[in-house]
Fold:
Amino acid sequence: MKRQLIVLVASLTMASCERPSPSDGDSSKSKTVPQASAAPKQSEPPRQPSLITLDELIVFTDPSLCYLNKEGERLMDGLHSYGDGQPITLGKVVAAERYLSAFGSPTLHELRAPEMEEENESVMEARLPVKARWRGLTMVGIESQRTNFSDAWAYSFRFSEPFEHVRSTLNRAGFAFSADGKQAPGNSETAPTVELIRQKDQTSLDCWF
Structure:
């Protein structure tokens, strides 16, 4: 019995010595499980800069007569260079520096109707590209028209929104455009003509003096 016990202890001791240690045993326990790589973050599209607002630069002090504030008048008047009996030439953008990035480069165009006689004056139209907001509308262009040696003058503001949207916005601002874009003329004989016109997918506010 004693001999059998010694043999059993010896067998257990040998079995214990042959058992692999945790450090070099079953590779499945010591092997590092690779972590799933995170999906790369998709880059967000760059934000478009917000448009400059021209509400304080262009103010209609009397919408019924299409009269502008001093800053608005200087902007429109500056697009032509004229005076001292000289022919009209291209002017420049006259506005505070904080507004200049809303405007492109002005260009000058000579307009003549086919039926105009040679001695009649051409209309000199200055065109100014615009990318700005005005009273919630998107202004895309300004035109100013003058004739040589005459006091006649006209200007217009173009918007990208549909006619009805522009009409509603302008009427809330003090204009009184009818459904066809007409506004009743003022009491004075020299009152300007003020009209809202559809231009393809744009809308134009026109004032003739």
